């Protein structure tokens, strides 16, 4: 655990402290930064507004130069809190294509990958309530 990270930190209005919290957060906390809104159909179907982004989910880009493009999530980088989507690539000066990192706040999940047992279990739980042991 990083010595600059505080588990008791609630929130602050100061952007400096918000940036510090996100920068010093350990990876298990950073994974919660990867929550993405669900599409209207999925909200009705599953009864929850957002879900953690996973590799294999189908997403649509809402903002930026790749707006309205959609594809499967190929990679998630927790360190930089970015997602890489298939088909969203930038062309470099030498003509090669490179994957373009997108912030999860600019994505919406259109199709969930539900083949994982833990994720299917999470869908049954109500959001915001801790699981009971």
Helix content: 10-25%
Overall geometric form: globular
Using DSSP, what is the number of strands?
7
Q: What is the topology, as strand order, of the major beta sheet? A: 2-1-7-3-4-5-6
What is the correct CATH architecture of the domain at 35-124?
Roll
- Residue ranges: pLDDT <50 for 5 or more in a row? none
Specify the CATH class of the domain at 35-124: Mainly Beta
Question: Roughly how many Å apart are the termini?
Answer: 26 Å
> What class do helices, strands and sheet pairing give?
alpha+beta
- What is the overall pLDDT average? 88
Explained architecture:
- The protein is built from 4 helices and 7 strands.
- With 133 residues, the chain is α+β, with helices and mostly antiparallel strands.
- It has helices at 15-24, 27-30, 40-46, 117-124; strands spanning 35-38, 50-52, 58-61, 70-77, 82-91, 97-102, 107-111.
- It is globular.
- It has a domain at 35-124: SH3 type barrels (Roll).
